[in-house]
Amino acid sequence: MLAAALTIAGSDPSGGAGIQADLKTFHQFGVYGEAVITLLTVQNTRHVMRVEVMEADLVRQQIEAVVTDIPPAAVKTGALGNAQVVSTVAQWAQHAKAPIIVDPVMISKHGARLLSPEAQQILKHQLIPHAFLVTPNLPEAEALTGQKNPEKAAEHLLKLGCRAVLIKGGHAEGEPTDLFHDRAGVLSVTDTGRGMAQEELKKLGAFRPSDLGRHDMPGMGLGLALVEKLASKCGARLTLTSTEGSGTRAEIAFSLKLPEA
Fold first, then answer.
1. Chain centroid to CA 246: how far?
2. Mind listing the pLDDT tens digit for each residue in 73-121?
3. What are the beta bridge partners of residue 12?
4. Which residues of 121-137 are buried (b: 16+ CB within 10 A; e: fewer)?
5. In angstroms, rounded to a whole number, what is the distance separating the alpha carbons of residues 240 and 141?
6. d(CA 69, CA 167)
7. Secondary structure of residue 95 in the 3-state scheme
8. Is 28 or 243 the better-scoring residue by pLDDT?
9. Domains of the chain: which residue ranges?
10. What is d(CA 87, CA 89) in angstroms, rounded to the nearest whole number?
11. What fold, for 4-176+218-236?
């Protein structure tokens, strides 16, 4: 039986983001995907024309229907839309039995705002404290913490109560660097854009190449990959490769343990 992962997020009819992208990724990693829709968008690859947020009670009913029938082994949240929906998800998160990965989506890739300032504060103080992992990009990390420095922003988020933070560096100038921070220390992982060859991946040993998926897109964060690993393995051990200088490889391994049931 396949392990299940639940995405609580918005719909992108063009398929490039939101629940559509999450479900594709779940499938790629051999995980049964479930979805709770928080908002509908009218958009394509160029523009966002309209956003309609679901009623909070409808979101709550979707969550209850899914988790009472097919309990997920991991949960990922995306665009939540407004203060009422964020509050509803946060209330459920207090008693959730699966680790929750919070992607604090605030602005679409086209620049449309997807979260009000009021909802942002509820997300920060009511949802993030229950997160196993928070995965903001650089602008989102700054908006949540007021810190431009990624490491200081991660420290701020950890103080809110989440277990770990992964700040995605795709908006940075030059080579994007993802920063992972938990209470044990900090890792910086730079994506050179060249990807990893299959033979290199085989040497890492922690995962098979098919487990890691593709990391040859500049700035691609690791949040989704962690969701699938948490759901399918009920734990995660992640080996990352960074490149320093001209071709020097450094391999860094770290482990994530699920919270006690």
1. 31
2. 999 999 999 999 999 999 999 999 999 999 999 876 666 677 888 999 9
3. none
4. ebbbebbbbbbbbbbbb
5. 22
6. 33
7. coil
8. 28
9. 4-176+218-236
10. 6
11. UDP-N-acetylmuramoyl-L-alanine:D-glutamate ligase (3.40.1190)
